[in-house]
Structure formats: structure tokens, C-alpha cells
Amino acid sequence: MDDITRPKGLLEFWEDSQLAGHNAAYLEDLYERYLTDPANVPEQWRTFFQTLPRVNGHGAEPSHSTIRETFRAMTRQPFAVRRSEPCKPGAPVHEEKQIRVLQLINAFRFRAHQVADIDPLGLREKPDLAELTPEFHGLAEADLDTLFDTGSLAIGERATLRDIVTKLHEIYCGSIGAEYMHITETQEKRWIQERIERAGGRASLEAEARLHILQRLTAAEGLERYLHTRYVGQKRFSLEGGDSLIPLLDELIRRGATHGVKEASIGMAHRGRLNVLINIVGKTAAELFEEFEGKAGKHFNGSGDVKYHQGFSSDLRTENGRVHVNLAFNPSHLEIVGPVVEGSVRARQQRSGDDEGRRVVPILIHGDAAFAGQGVVMETINMSQSRGYSTKGTVHIVVNNQIGFTTSSQKDARSTLYCTDIAKMVNAPILHVNGDDPDAVISVTQLALDYRMNFHKDVVIDLVCYRRHGHSEADEPTATQPVMYAAIRDHKTPRALYAERLVKEGVCHETVPKQIMDACRDRLDRGETAVDGLMTREEARYPWAVDWEPYLAQACTAFLDTTVSIERLRQLWRSLDHMPDGFELNPNVGKIISNRRKMAAGALPIDWGFAETLAYASLVDEGYPVRLSGQDSGRGTFFHRHAVLYCQKDGSAYIPLRNIREGQANFLVINSLLSEEAVLAFEYGYATTDPNTLVIWEAQFGDFANNAQVVIDQFISAGEQKWNRLCGLVMLLPHGLEGQGPEHSSARLERYLQLCAEHNMQVCVPTTPAQIFHLLRRQIMLECRKPLVVMSPKSLLRHRLAVSTLEDLSEGDFQPVIPEVDELSDSTVRRVVLCSGKVYYELLEKRREQKIKDIAILRVERLYPFPKAQLHKQLERYPNANEIIWCQEEPQNQGAWFSIKHHLDATLPDPSRLRYIGRPFSAAPAVGYAWLHLQQQHKLVSEALGSDPVLKQTDT
Question: Domain Transketolase-like pyrimidine-binding: where (predicted)?
Fold first, then answer.
């Protein structure tokens, strides 16, 4: 076979290719596509195929058998095995060995992280990787002093094999284990490779920088020792063993400032949190000591939370400008704070016009077992490059204690080699680093941040360390991990090791480490902050800060004029009805738009979708941004919203609510990824950061919120009481028993009502388009920020009676209680039926059908805060009504009954008595058989209206 020549660049292409030595079938397929049309294959492959041998050296394309033989040869040795330079006598042998040297270099890039010295305890078992030996690649001892081209290895153009191997060990087998060859973007991979190899496995730090690291390590260790002796036996979830986290975060903030970062938002669980609060964010030691002594902060009025769940924020002055640093509040649910921080960061970025994520950077600190074990990590990483949730890259830090609770075995903790493998799903580079080598820690920190700022993608630092104490300071770890803790007991602290190193290398005198320790202790004794450059509030005056003060006083039940004039509603519709030229709607969607034209003209009653759209249109026109996300929220799960329209000719999308007028507020609707927990947490974080945007999360079905229950329990319902965090998030949860089985019927209304107390949130069940119109408008217009849980409808979206008029939108406000709508004589009413939601219309139709005139039906549309005064006023209208019925379609142990019964009792006029009518107790939210559902529904409606005919079982 003739020599295969190739243009410059193909060897580099081979070095990056994941096809190295594999998949000849794929190469053959590429060649077939090339023969059909050269434009069908990437340029680099096209260039290569042009160099393949011809039959007899010229003429037509070679025979297919010749091509197969060429490909087979490539699978035995690397692609493009010959240099384009002329060969000298004996060169073919040398050239073959040259390729093997490049294979060896590539093997280190791919696999050397597995044998890197990243475990400070030395307990990690390293595999015996033959691929990292010259012998594996057919290179003998006699080749060690032969000069070879180094390819793209950043150590000079040529070197002996001995020097190449030595350098590869220094770069890839020291305190840093770099995983980056899985990245599919060549530019990113090349960038990381060049940075790592140029550094040669060593951190280049000035003496002053290294002394600063020692000071930060001393502050980290000093705080833990101080607390350990002053508050004996109290849990603090010590950072000891992972002390390098403090200089790591310090470097992130300082280096971030050189990139123009103005805000760093940190999320972490409780391990090391107190240390971060004191030594990074700037909380004073005196404040922390008060919390250890069980005292609440002077400005705190809620129930509070334990000290290692608290958040804090401050402004720090660095050499390159100020940085606002905040540590998010977090419950014990470890990784759940991740998407909350991401949502907060997205809001901060949009508030400051930071479209590229250069001003605001999210930093998430994880535990190793939690990073691998908790699904919300995957959900959050999956959001990282999506349009609606991207924050342009997150710096993930795994404080890898090599143990989860009491588990240290990898076989128990995960099914992957590393706890960080999940991050490979988004091609994130992963930098494993020995926590006992602070210089290496700073080196990877700089690399990680620079990568994030250059490529706007996630990056992971795996800080491999250990946990000096048990899960908490009251734990006895040797009971389950005797070998690990025997090693820890005899192991010097990171500060001690680093101090010895600096003294030995002549960076400082042997007295300096003690002087730094004494100064640290003196600061703690005085209760001062441990952070240099901390700015006072007067100095800070952060330009993008939000004043939450106006939202503290007003009650969310106050009356508010949410009306919009009929003329303005019609003007808004005319803007919404304007389509781009040639935009062809789906016929079914076109029918809905046509009906909305008639609704705007008053020729048809207004349905739910139109009222909701007008609410959003009026808000963005008035300057209130709207953010709506959920699975299929653009169209609406039940085909009712159509906020996003699609052209049937080319698939292009058009959003009328973004095109009302020039200068309007933003309307953003997001078809979210298939996640509830991370997405809802993201929207919560966004809403806690931006009180001026109406933030809405919509569940596809109400019960889907089950998958995000931790967000509801720990943040939405309790965030204000625990952490003084206000939030105006809206949750739209489709609810209603319509024969769709247990999983698609109930939004679990009872769960939200059980969480209601101290005016922490609102729970509403609107039944008319006008009600949702006013409810959404008041949520953002009222100077009050409480979460709003809406039991939104399904069948009512198109129910012939669930309609409103333009006048209903141009008058009044949201009604917590809707009075009787038919003309009844108040004095003749003997029974009042109270209800919420869809069952109202079934009761109404049945009463009208039977022409009942002595039963009034009232709708309670706001279940919390319960409208006692309004309901009592309505009940007083019926002096002869001795029987008050609460009718619900949910089972008796579910729905609203048990949560509001005491409120109902308190509103009853004498001598009325209260009675429940609805489904009986049930373990499931609804039945799964349509005939049984209809039988139960018929029975409860009939009982509520005083008639209960014998029901026959019918076929479905």
C-alpha cells in the first residue's frame, strides 16, 4: 500500500477523536456518505478521504475491499499513521513508534486521573493501568532516550520518551486528576488541555499568595477548634479535613472580580456551612456565638431555624472591585438548595441586564454521597444549558469526604467510579484535587472559574478530603469505619501540613504560622469578622439590590382595584390578534383565536384561557414582567392557553404577549424539562429574588407536585417563618375529580391547607374566568408577597357555565366568597350548601334541573386565609337556614373539610348546624373506574340537594 499522506491538522484531529482504534463500521459508513456526496461528511473527514489511495495509484475510486483493508489497518493503529514529510531510511519504523508515543500521551489524558495522587489519606485503591506504560504501546526501554515529536503536548516540539513519560506523570498523576477528554467540543477540550499541560502539574504562586492561603487555612481550622472547645458536644457539622474549601472559595471570589463578577451566589448543605458563613461571607463570630447560645437575631420575628441552615450576605472589597456574596438559606434536604440558587441567580442576572452571565456567578457546594445519590442534582445539571433556566455556567464544588453518613464503600454509595460522573451528561470538565495540597486546589480553582467565564458552562471541582469527626460531632465514626478513622487520627491537618511546607521551602519563618493562628484566635475572642475587606451597609449600597420593605406591612387579603376598562381590554386584544404576515395557524388553534375575537367584541362569553391571557397582557402592558413555566405551559396541557403559536408552514413560533407594544414588560413562557422538583425550586428561588415579576409554576396535573413536595414543605410554606424570606410564587395545580383515576384527579388540596398557618400563603379555588383574571393581577399588584396556590380547573376550562363577561373583568376584585347567583327568596332558604371548585356547577345544574328554590349554594373561593367575615355575612342573609352543608367531591379525609371545619363552625349563625356531604374516607385520591366515579358523584350531589334516588350500577 502506498504511503498515506495527510494535510496538517489531521494528527491533531486523531488525538481528539473518540474513535481512536474503534468502530471501523462507522468509518466505512462515513466513506459511503462521502462517495455519495462529499458535502455529507465533516470537512476534516472529507480532507482525509481525499488522501486515500487510488487503484494503481491513479484513476477512479479504489475498490471497496481496498477501503475496508485501509480501515482495518486504522483500527489496529491510529488514524493517519504517516507524516506528510518525506521518509528517510528506517523512518517507517520510527514513524510507527512516533504514533505509539502519541497514543501513550493520549492514554494519560484519558485515564491518568485514575492513578493521580488525590486522596490525602492514601486509602484509595489505584488500578493497575497498563495503558499508561510505554510497553503497552509497543515501546521498549531502548526507546526511552529517542527523540519524538510531542504532538500537542505543551512541553516543546520534541523530547525524549523518558522526558515525555516523566512530564506526563507530573502533569496528570500528581495532586490533580483531570477529566476532560469526554468533552465533545474540541475547542473546550483543547483549552483545558493546554492550560493543564502548560502548568506542568505545578501551581505557580507567589510567596504572598501562599501566605494568604495559609491565613485562610488557619482561619478555617481556628474557628472549628474554637467552637469545639467553647461549645462542647454541640453539633456544627465541622469542615475539618476539608479546610481547603475556604481558600478555594476565597480565590473564586477574588479571581471572579478580575473577570468583572459583581455577585457570587453560594448554595451548600450544612457540612462546613458555619465556616463559610464566618470566613467567606463575613458573618461576625459574635452573631454565631449568640446562635450557639440559643438566641434569636435582633430583627427576627419568625420561628427561626438551626444555625447551620442559616444564610447571609455581604459586600466584599477586593483588589479588582467589590463583590456581593450571598449564601442561600437551606434546610437539611442537602442538594435541594441547588436549583433554588440557580433560580435566584437567573433573576439577578436579568435584573442587572447580565445576559451573558458575567456579573453574577452561581457556586454550588455538594457532598460526595449527595452529589451522586440525589436526583435533584441531575435535574439541576440538566437545566444548565436549557433556554429557560440557564445561568451561563455553575461552579460546582464537591467536598468529597469519601464517606456518606456512615458509608465509605463506593459499592454502597454509588454505581460509578466517581461521585462526580453525573456531571459528564453535560460535558462538564471534572477536576479532582487533593485537599491536602492547597496550591493545587488554587490552581484548579483558577482553571475552573476561567473555563466557566470563557465557555459559560458548568464545571466541577472534586475536592477530595476527609471528615475528621463523624457525621456530627456527637457521632462515633470508628464504630463503622475503624480503618479510615485510624488513618485520620494520625493524619496532620491541612493547615499543619501546609505550614510545614512553607517553612521548609523558605516561604516564611517558622514563627509565622503561630503568629497567624494567634491573630485568628484574638479575632474570635473579640467576636469580630474574619473577612478582610468587608464593607458596611452604608459603603455597599449595592446598585441592583431590591428593597423588600414595602412588601412587609400590607395584608394579602386587603381590597385592591384590579379592574381594567373594557376599552383597554379590547385594545389589548387588538395587539394580541396581530399576527406576522403569512403566519398560518393550526385549524383548531385558529378556531380558538376566532372565538376570542368574538369574546372581545362581546358576542361570546369569556372563557378561562382568554381571561388568563388578558390578565397577562394587562400586566406586561402596565410594566409587570411575567414568567410562566411548566410542562407544555406554552400551549397549556388542556389546550386552553396558546401563549405560543406555531406557524403550520415552517414551525416558527410567535408569542403575541411579547408583542403588545414597544417598551412593554417581558413575558416569558417556558416549556420546562420533565422535572418538577428542580424546576419548582428554581422558580421559588427566582421569586424570592425578584418581587417585581409575576412568577408562575404550572403542574401538568396537580398531583405532579408530589415530586416537588420538599420544595413546598421546606421553602414555599415555611421560608418566611424560618428565614424571613418573602416569596410571591404562584402555583397552578389542575384539580378536579373527573373520572381520570387516582393520579390525575386531585392536586392534594389537603396538603397545602395542612401547611397553612400564620398567614404564610394563600390557597384559592377560582371557578370563573373573571376570578383568575383578578387573582393573577392582584398577586403582583398588591404590596404583599405570599405564595399563592391555585387549584386550577380542567373541565371547567370549557364548561358552558364557567364563563364571564368583559364587565366582570372591568369591575370589582377577586371574591373570596361568591354569593348565590340565582334569584331565591332569602327567607325561604332552608339549607345552604357551601363548596369549592368544579362540584359547584354540578350542584347548580342539578338544582336548576329539579327546580329547587329553598337551597342556596355559596362558593368559598379562598380557603386560606379563610374568609370568615365574608362568609358570615352571606350566611346571615338566610335567617331560616338551619342546615349548613359542606359539600366536596374529594374523599372525607382529603380535600378541604378537616382543615376548614373549625372555620366553618366559627361562622355559623345560631341555631344552624354543620354537616359534611362528599365521598367517604379513602386511601386513594379517586377511584379508577368511570362508572364508579359517576355513581359516587351523582350520590354526593343528590345528597347535598336533599334527594338520593336509588342508583343502578351501569356499564362504562
Answer: 606-799
Number of other residues whose CB lies within 10 A of the CB of residue 17 = 17
Decide if 923 contacts 746 (C-beta within 8 A). no
Write down the pLDDT at residue 861. 98
Please provide residue 767's backbone torsions phi and psi, each rounded to the nearest 5 degrees: -120, 5
Tell me if 619 is assigned to some domain: yes
Tell me, letter by letter, the H, E, C secondary structure of 786-850.
CCEEEEECCHHHHCCCCCECHHHHHCCCCCCEECCCCCCCHHHCCEEEEECCCHHHHHHHHHHHH
| Residue 609, C-alpha cell as written in the block | 384561557
558 domain residue, yes or no: no
For 600-659, what is each residue's pLDDT tens digit? 999 999 999 999 999 999 999 999 999 999 999 999 999 999 999 999 999 999 999 999
Q: Please, what is the Cα angle at 127 between 123 and 131, to 5 degrees?
A: 150
Domain identity same for 288 and 364 = yes
The CATH number of the domain where 418 resides is what?
3.40.50.970
Are 389 and 521 in a shared domain? yes
Task: Please give the C-alpha separations between residue 928 and each of 154, 703, 892, 931, in angstroms, as whole numbers.
Answer: 66, 15, 17, 9
- 764 near 790, Cβ under 8 Å? yes
Q: Are residues 396 and 304 in the same domain?
A: yes
Q: What cell numbers appear for 810 in the block?
A: 372591568
In DSSP terms, 396 is beta-bridged to: 364, 460
How many domains are contained in the chain? 4
Q: Evaluate the omega torsion of the peptide bond into residue 911 and state whether it is cis, within 30 degrees of 0.
A: yes
Pinpoint the alpha helices (H) of 586-741: 587-601, 608-621, 677-689, 709-711, 719-723
77 in a domain, yes or no?
yes
Parent domain of 845: 822-944
Cell output for 470: 463523624
The reply to whether the predicted model has a pTM over 0.90 is no
- Mark whether 247 and 129 lie in a shared domain: no
Give the helix/strand (H/E) hosting 742.
none
193 and 67 in a common domain: yes
Residue 546 counted as domain residue: no
